[in-house]
Specification:
The chain has helices spanning 121-139, 176-192, 196-207, 251-269, 307-312, 321-330, and strands at residues 3-6, 13-16, 52-57, 68-74, 88-91, 94-97, 102-107, 146-153, 165-171, 211-214, 218-221, 232-236, 274-279, 295-300, 315-317. With 334 residues, the chain is of the alpha+beta class. The chain binds zinc ion (3 copies).
């Protein structure tokens, strides 16, 4: 028998194959393969991107020239445009809004071939520090209700450029999947007067079975209700609704944990495509939603979402999170 599990936060159901679980060798990995061409994100090609919004660079070097360690630029083909006023209109029963938003790209490092595990700790910190700075800035724009940070690594994960980069998108509404989490967390808070994420941390720390890594400020674990095999969440141990309100001293701890996690995953599966997203509380609403706690969700691309998932919203998870966490813990990266 497989096991049905219900996510206490978003209410989603998943089906975990506890009977015949997949081991790492059972997955067909699509390793990143790219079309070759001139890369606009490479060192020396700064003039090929939209102008720099902010960068970490050597003192005395000019914007849009070499001398940088990480840069933020607007997306050349943005999903949403920054200029204009928000205009919500309707077409009969259909709600519409014009495509106001911001879509920015953080070029992780000057190195075309280096993924997060290949970077120095300081270089990984740059990515999260710049994400924080840009989130704080976009939060001040009252048109926006939500800022999401995400990474697509490899073509199967949706990246269109090989050079590792992270993206930031500001939206005029709160996306549905976030709303589900917020509503679930809010209901729990109303009922128990506690943050459900803090309770998850407490239970995971007691049970230990799904924990992958822990440091002073963060916990990494495979969620009990994973949607994907080897899904990992990274969450600050101290309650905090907003990613960009992360205290400065936590940034290096986050960077080194994410680096170690991706190293472990790559050691098990070889080079593979992956996504991560950062869920943070909505902005410019009526204050911070009670009981919401920011976190990073990491998803290696091991399976394809198929008809059953699309149709039911139930995910099929071939490796139980308890087993995935065990494989990840046992993988030594030092
Ligand atoms: Zn490049
Ligand atoms: Zn909390
Ligand atoms: Zn989430």
């Amino acid at each position: 028998m497989s096991e049905l599990r219900r996510d206490p936060i978003g209410g989603r159901w998943v089906i975990v194959d506890t009977d015949h679980p997949n081991r790492p060798k059972d997955y067909d990995i699509e390793s990143p393969a790219w079309r070759e061409g001139v890369c606009p994100f490479c060192y020396g090609n700064e003039s090929q991107t939209p102008p720099e919004i902010i960068a970490i660079r050597e003192p005395g070097t000019a914007a849009n020239t070499p001398g940088w360690q990480a840069r933020v630029v607007s997306n050349k083909y943005p999903a949403l445009q920054i200029e204009g006023d928000l205009d919500r209109s309707g077409l009969g029963i259909y709600d519409m809004s014009n495509g106001i938003g911001a879509h920015e790209v953080i070029i992780d490092s000057p190195y075309h071939q280096k993924d997060i595990p290949d970077l120095l700790d300081q270089e990984v910190e740059n990515i999260f520090s710049l994400s924080c700075v840009r989130s704080l800035d976009l939060m001040r724009d009252k048109r926006f209700k939500y800022v999401m940070i995400f990474k697509n690594y490899g073509p199967a994960a949706g990246a269109s450029l090989a050079h590792p980069h992270t993206q930031l998108i500001a939206l005029p509404m709160v996306p549905k999947s976030v709303k589900e989490e917020i509503n679930g967390a809010h209901n729990y808070f109303e009922y128990r007067d506690r943050c459900i994420f803090c309770d998850v941390i407490r239970q995971e720390t007691q049970e230990k079975e799904r924990i992958v890594l822990e440091n002073k400020y963060f916990l990494a674990f495979c969620p009990f209700v994973s949607r994907f095999p080897f899904e990992i969440w990274v969450i600050p141990k101290k309650h905090n609704g907003y990613f960009c309100h992360m205290p400065q001293e936590e940034v290096p701890a986050l960077a080194s944990m994410v680096k170690e996690l991706i190293s472990k995953v790559k050691k098990i599966f070889g080079s593979l495509c992956y996504n991560f997203i950062i869920h943070s509380a909505p902005i410019n609403g009526d204050g911070e939603p009670e009981g919401y706690h920011w976190h990073l969700e990491f998803m290696p691309k091991l399976t394809k979402v198929a008809g059953f998932e699309w149709g039911t919203g139930f995910y099929l998870v071939p490796t139980p999170p308890e087993l995935a966490a065990k494989f990840l813990r046992e993988e030594n990266t030092s």
